[in-house]
Amino acid sequence: AAAGEACDGASGPDCEAGLACIGAMGATSGTCKTFAQIQTKGLGDACNLDAGELCQEGLSCAVDQLGMPATFKCVGASATGAACRPGVPDPCPADEYCDVDQMSMNIDGICHKLPTDGQPCVEPAIPFGPICAQSHTCDGTKTCKARQQVGGACVEDEICYSDTCEGGKCVAHPACDAPEMP
C-alpha cells in the first residue's frame, strides 16, 4: 500500500518499502506513513512506539517511567559504560546493550558489550529474547556461537548463515522449487 493508504489489519496489504504501518491492531487497519511523518519527536519529547510517534534520527525512544502503561521519552546516545535506559533503538553503541536488572524492575542500566562466542546469551529488556554480538547467534543452550559460512562446523541450522546444517557442516540453502509451467 502507498503512503496514506490502509494497511495490515484484517485484510489490508503491507506498506510499500520505506513506509511503516501505523495504528494497525488486530482486525483494525492502520495507515501507511513515511518515516519523515513519524520520526518527529525531539530530545526530551514524549514518544510512543505503538502510536508511531518516534524520535528523530540519532535519538532513542527510551523507558521514562514504569506503569500501566509505561511512558517513554526521546534520549540521546549513551557511551560505553555509561548510564542508559532500555529503548528503541538501543541507546548504547552498536555492539552493546542496555543492561538493566529486570528482576528489581529498575529501568536504570549501564551499556555493556554484547556477548561473543562461548559466552552466555543476554536477555535485555528491549528487544525481548536472547541476543549476542553481531555475527553470533544464541544456541539451544543459551550460549553465543559464531555464525558459520558454508563448510563450517554446526550442530543446528541457526549457527549457519545459510540456516541449513547437514551432517555437522553448514551447507548452501536449497534452491526454491520453481512452479511447473502448464
Mean pLDDT: 88
Radius of gyration: 20 Å
CATH topology of the largest domain: Lipase, subunit A
Order of helices and strands: EEEHEEEEEEEEEEEEE
Ends: how far apart?
Answer: 31 Å
User: What is the number of E strands?
Assistant: 16
Report the total helices: 1
The appropriate CATH architecture of the largest domain is Ribbon
Global outline: flat
The parts where pLDDT drops under 50 for at least 5 residues are none
Q: State the oligomer.
A: single chain
> Residue share in helices?
under 10%
Strand order of the largest sheet: 5-8-7-10
Biggest sheet layout: 4 strands, antiparallel
Strand-residue fraction?
25-35%
Describe this structure in words.
The protein is 2% helix and 29% strand. The chain is an all-beta fold. The mean pLDDT is 88. It starts with 5 loop residues before the first strand and ends in a 12-residue tail after the last strand. It folds into 3 domains: 1-38, no CATH class; 42-113, Lipase, subunit A; 114-174, no CATH class. 26% of the residues are buried.
SSE topology sketch:
Layout: E1 6-7, E2 19-22, E3 30-34, H1 35-38, E4 39-41, E5 46-47, E6 54-55, E7 60-65, E8 71-75, E9 83-84, E10 87-88, E11 96-99, E12 109-113, E13 136-138, E14 144-146, E15 165-166, E16 169-170
Parallel strand pairs: 4-6
Antiparallel strand pairs: 1-3, 2-3, 5-8, 7-8, 7-10, 9-12, 11-12, 13-14, 15-16
Brief overview:
The chain has 182 residues and is an all-beta fold. The protein has three domains: 1-38, no CATH class; 42-113, Lipase, subunit A; 114-174, no CATH class.
